[in-house]
Amino acid sequence: MTTTRTEASWAVLEKAAAAADLRIHGAEVIRLSENDLWRLPDDVVARVARAGQEQAAAREVAVTRWLAKEGVPAVRPLDVDQPVLALGRPTTFWEELPPHRSGSGADLAPLLRRLHDLPPPGDLPLDVMDPFVRLEDRLLSARILPEDDRRWLLDLLADLRAEWAQLPSGRQKSVIHGDAWAGNCAVTSQGEAYLLDFERTALGHPEWDLTSTAVGVDTLGNLSHDAYEGHCSAYGYDVRTWEGYPTMRAIRELRMTSFAFQAADERPEIREQAMYRLSCLRGRGGPRPWGWQSLG
């Protein structure tokens, strides 16, 4: 009998929760995605990660414990020994936030500024941020990607690697979130904002975090200029004024395109969007913004 995604995740959760001495009776799925999120009794959220992500899970717990000491509003891990490895997958346990909505760029920006202004802790095991992680693998493995386009994208990747190595001077390197889009900021009904999802936190250019919002107005076209100005005002800096920004924007665009092709192998309904993104990169989509659609 085939095991469903939910059943497989539940089996991990059962063992991990037992090891952490946590109750799971009545647990509900929040989301099954790259990580599986479950709502447990006692205002606890469990995050079941993919196999092989033990180091990333441990880093998330360490980073959020550090942020708690520094007073930066962020999700808080439970005070248990974690991550818990069960059936080859790491699970972490978190305090559930009050009812909330996704934040805006203006909500996110002050949190990023506080994060970027912190002195990097000497006892936190953080890697140097690599913007190219998994990119080549995605391009090589995408089954629907035509071979001539694959070669073109791999050449673009090589060019961007060279540009990244020669980035002009910018803001002082710091701890960065690594995936700093508005969906990783939660705002409660009382207006309190929190940072979420520290899976890609690293040491690097703070401009990388800011580029996540800038591509919303420049590339995606889903963020108004007024909203973007609110983000810049709240942070105190517009990354688009920096000479290295076009390189970071191009890397972000290549990442979004490669992810679309990876997803399209399993989801035929987004193949058109993947090909459209490729056409834009190859100069066939007209000027930015290109109006790329969410992959859902």
Mean pLDDT: 96
Q: Indicate the overall shape.
A: globular
- Structural class label: alpha+beta
| Uncertain segments | none
CATH topology of the largest domain: Aminoglycoside 3'-phosphotransferase, Chain: A, domain 2
Query: For this structure, what is the CATH homologous superfamily of the largest domain?
Result: Aminoglycoside phosphotransferase (APH), C-terminal lobe
Give the CA-CA distance, first to last residue: 29 Å
What integer value in Å does the Rg equal? 20 Å
Descriptive account of the structure:
This protein has helices spanning 5-20, 54-70, 105-117, 135-141, 147-165, 206-220, 225-235, 245-264, 271-281; strands at residues 28-32, 36-40, 44-48, 84-86, 89-95, 100-102, 174-176, 185-188, 193-195, 202-204. The protein has 296 residues and is an alpha+beta fold. The protein has two domains: 5-96, Phosphorylase Kinase, domain 1, CATH 3.30.200; 105-281, Alpha-Beta Complex (Aminoglycoside 3'-phosphotransferase, Chain: A, domain 2). The chain is globular.
Write the layout of secondary structure elements.
Layout: H1 5-20, E1 28-32, E2 36-40, E3 44-48, H2 54-70, E4 84-86, E5 89-95, E6 100-102, H3 105-117, H4 135-141, H5 147-165, E7 174-176, E8 185-188, E9 193-195, E10 202-204, H6 206-220, H7 225-235, H8 245-264, H9 271-281
Antiparallel strand pairs: 1-2, 2-3, 3-5, 4-5, 6-8, 7-10, 8-9
Helix pairs in contact: 3-6, 3-7, 4-5, 4-8, 5-8, 6-8, 8-9
